[in-house]
Amino acid sequence: MTDSTDDIAAKYGNQDSTAGEAEEEEMADPVLGDDSLGHVALKDSQLFVGRSEMQIIAYIDQHERDGLRVGNYVCIPYPDATTEPNEDEVLLAAIDRLEYRPITEVNDWVDGGGYSDFGEQNLAYVSHLDPIAIVKHDRLKDTLTRQTVDRPPKPGEDVHLIEDEEILRVGLNIPSDGIYIGDMAVSGDFIPNDENPLTYLLSNPNSTDGTADEGEPAIFRHLLVAGSTGKGKTHFSKNILRQCAVSKQYPIEVPPEEQEAFGIDDDIRHRYLNLFVIDPEDEYVEMRDDNPGLSPEKARELEDKGVAVGGLDDDLQVFAPVTANSQPTLDDIRTFGIPFSVVENRPQLLLSSRPKDPTFNAIRNVLNAYFGRFDDDSNDEPTYNDFETWLELNGDQIVNNDNILAAVERRVTGPIYDRVFDHGSTSLDEYTNDMFNRGQVTVVPTGHLRGETEKLVLLALMTHIVENKIDTGVEHPQIKGTPMLLCVDEAHEYLSSTDRPREQYLVQNFRQAAKRGRKDKFGLYMVTQNPQDIDDEILKQTNTRIYLGLQPEIVERIRIPSDYDDRIVTFDKGQAVVDAPDVRPVEVQGLDVCVTNHSN
Ligand SMILES: Nc1ncnc2c1ncn2[C@@H]1O[C@H](COP(=O)(O)OP(=O)(O)OP(=O)(O)O)[C@@H](O)[C@H]1O
Ligand SMILES: [Mg+2]
Q: Which H, E and C letters describe 218-281, residue by residue?
């Protein structure tokens, strides 16, 4: 045996036998685990922390090797680091690599491989550590604070698997209050341990909790949930949205139109959130109901953890769009039609492909002339049928080139417009105040619609929402003056980079809305299996990204936090990487139950 294996044997023996009493004393310090994994090592390598590069390697004791995984979190104390007697400092780090290195002359080129006397005792198992933060513990005040890593730990210092969830929380900068997303995990195993995993929360300062001045809620900095089909995007999202629903108020500027109409003097009011969900598969409607598979014991356990549980009942209202030949079959809903007036000032909504400039200008002129005939006092409403007739009779007075007029007619007439506009007894405009009620979850199911019809209906609806949110002098100050989280499942269908004018128009509006989200209290929550298709500008504004399991060909085309791009392809249902503002990307395991009904 060489000197170094003697050292190891001495240390190994120490751990098992004589150190008992000494460890009892260390237990008094709450920030460290009671057992070390090994120690900071120097042999054959350098130990350094620099501005751009750092290298910290730990030797792992033989009996600790099997349980360790890449991604595990460890801490290393800095003894006598501060001159304050009541302060301790530890380095929080993640295991970046696990590696065997020979420490004697190993020859495993022999018959019988593992049965020869070559084995763990001849090998060092070393762990490359990725330093995250220094966490300072003030024992008198019992507070933890986080600092950047500005020095290496001492060679020989014990390395502990992290057992104190608060060190982990502070070191990773995970908020201690907020919206519950899931529990922290490494390779699917909860950390620090199964019984008491660290809850991962999204920052959500609000007026109800008296924390509104502590920064911007993550919801108004936009979220993306991406994952392959069946990986649990909708399940995960229902659980998150249930946490965001109804109970918190946020400060918002009262729009001038509303101040005027209601004689309001305040510039800022504290208002409940409207959570507005676009539901292409009629799944979010189920958030009204309890999950019949969730036992009362489990529900209580979750509530004790601070997780909101249970169907939303009347706090969730359903508004389904009707078209010419499709009626929703869901119970207890209100139906609305898309009025042709949504096209006023938005000729793009009538364009499924890009026309030449003269045609586009002519379409704009025709629509301006048509809508110009209705003033505020008029009892007549513009309708699509009326527009078609009017165009036939008057088109040549507005457009005096026959070819251009024919091109205009080809584009603005067609069965899809007959199907979409002006159906049902109540229009989107009439329901706007009810739909954007504060403290309400509004779900718009479109499972009864198909193809281009569904698309046009939703593009019109989303344009109505976003323009009323970002414009000035808006028609519906209810939308502008309400803090709102807009959830779009299958978001790649509507928010992708495209040259189709209709979608492009919406995307441009959304880009602007996403930029102004914090000011206007407008959050976008996108759910998709094709994150690579979402418009880049919108993605850039999306600060929280939750990646569930994804196929390798998609991982290649998007930016996944680098420690996870290999592993994400093997993720099980509910296993996710969460990348949130100011927080290091980490693995999180979402709840295996849905806190509301999810029947599929
Ligand atoms: N963490 C989880 N644990 C156990 N079951 C889950 C988990 N997440 C999802 N499931 C179940 O897996 C199924 C698929 O989940 P979900 O509908 O959320 O997938 P999805 O990613 O939205 O799929 P799609 O792309 O088809 O919309 C559902 O039955 C759901 O209840
Ligand atoms: Mg889904």
A: HHHHCEEEECCCCCCHHHHHHHHHHHHCCCCEEEEECCHHHHHHHCCCCCEEEEECEEEEEECC
Q: Is the pLDDT of residue 256 over 70?
A: yes
Q: What is the CA radius of gyration of the chain?
A: 30
> Do the strands 199-202 and 179-186 form a parallel or antiparallel pair, or are they unpaired?
antiparallel
Nearest alpha carbon, ligand 1 atom 18: 232
What are 219-255's pLDDT values in tens digits? 999 999 999 999 999 999 999 999 998 789 999 988 8
Nearest CA-CA partner of 386 in 407, 367, 408: 367
- Summarize pLDDT for 346-391 with one digit per residue, the tens: 899 998 888 888 999 999 999 999 999 887 677 788 999 999 999 9
Overall residue count recorded for the chain in this entry: 600
Site to probe by mutation for ligand 1, drawn from 235, 237, 490 as the one with most ligand atoms within 8 Å of Cβ, is 235
What is residue 199's predicted lDDT score, i.e. its pLDDT? 96
Angle, vertex CA 422, rays to CA 514 and CA 441, nearest 5: 45
Beta-carbon neighbours within 5 Å of ion ligand 2? 233-234
pLDDT above 90: percentage of residues in the chain = 64
The SS3 call for residue 182 is strand
